[in-house]
Amino acid sequence: MAITRPKGTNDFMPDEVLSWQYMENILRDLCKQFGYMELRTPIFEDTELFIRGVGDTTDIVQKEMYTFTDQGNRSLTLRPEGTASTVRAYLEHKMFAVSQPTKLYYMGPMFRCEKPQAGRYRQFHQFGVEFFGSNSSAADAEVISLAWEFYQRLGLKGLEVRLNSVGCPNCRPIHRKALQEFLKPHFEELCSSCQSRFEKNPLRILDCKSPVCQKIVENAPTTIDCLCEECQEHFAGVKSYLDAVKIPYHLDPHLVRGLDYYTNTAFEILVTEIGAQSAICGGGRYNGLVKEVGGSNTPGVGFALGMERAFAAMAAQGITLPTKEKFDLYFAPLNEEADHLCFMWLTALRSQGIACEKDYMNRSLKAQMKYADKIHAPYVVIVGDSELADQKAVLRCMANAQQKEIDFVNLIDSLVEMVNGGKENE
Ligand code: ATP
Ligand code: MG
Description:
The protein is of the alpha+beta class. Helices cover 39% and strands 21% of the residues. It contains 15 helices and 16 strands. The chain has an eight-stranded mixed β-sheet. Strands 13-12-14-15-16 form a five-stranded mixed β-sheet, sandwiched between helices. A three-stranded antiparallel β-sheet has the order 2-4-3. Residues 81, 112, 114, 119-121, 124, 126, 277, 279-282, 304-306, 308-309 line the site of adenosine-5'-triphosphate.
């Protein structure tokens, strides 16, 4: 039986890769303009990093990690997300020791052993940013505005930013107590996961997907109700910066991130057209995370967005991206001597930055012209017996079928001039 790709993974065919490169270029430009530098970390890490950095009560760590033991009996895990590795590198390379803030981004494949479905894969791609070293509300607003600007540049419409604040280690115990008191009379009705969350992590009950739990928590006390003064101020700051740059947002008091190291801002960006998997971006502040991974108290805020889901949203909204690479020239040699000559010219022109191609299949002239058309080459250089005798090649313009002769001695110079001149006039 033929071997196929593993379940939940994708091959991106060359035409699709052009769209990926287009999206990646938008992201790189954006990061340059916003002042984020790219960090590249290993695809696998010590399993312990994710247990600490993602949290041992999360779905990711409990159910979704690709963990293996290597020949040296080390437990390693394919990275399920990018923040833990970024924090590790931030500490390992003492990035905190230079003037702050440190603004980093990453982009690449992540691995989660989930049930594959539309918009949910086992190998998928995330772009994410992390802003370390500042607790300013403007940093939260900046990362949200970076994500927002990205989707604007893709041309997406109808996005919804959901915003909340989950408070800090000072105000959260107050909320926890109020929430438990509110939920106590309904304990028996909660789903079994939420019953076990009741003691360990009641905050997560607020975003349980079960309709019964959702109904119960409808009027439950929210983190917003319990924010301390400092957290209230921080949240007001985030909202005022977003207002200043006219980024619309909806307050969603049930948007929570259940772990202790998440503080203050939590946000998500949704696009409704892509069905159940409508979250295209998620992020927030994590002032306790760097310490959790082994550093000293360092504020941080960031997000991760799913690149496949951005493509899905574009497809749903009918936005298309370039899917063809352009050639400047095609060489059509008609005998072996001509073939050597064309190969030489091809090489010389490529070294001058011109995209060109030649026949490699010993095709007839007619078949070569058809092929040149197929690859969208605007010009074809034809060399056969008579051209060799005259030391002149035929240059054919595919758009209007006009032909002219070019002396072999001037060929490179005139083709370079023609192609570059054409580019200037585009
Ligand atoms: P979900 O609720 O959809 O499982 P999540 O909370 O697990 O999302 P994060 O860990 O915050 O998601 O990851 C950020 C983004 O990465 C998501 O908003 C989504 O766009 C994307 N993403 C997450 N898991 C997958 C996956 N298995 N396949 C494709 N994209 C994904
Ligand atoms: Mg998930």
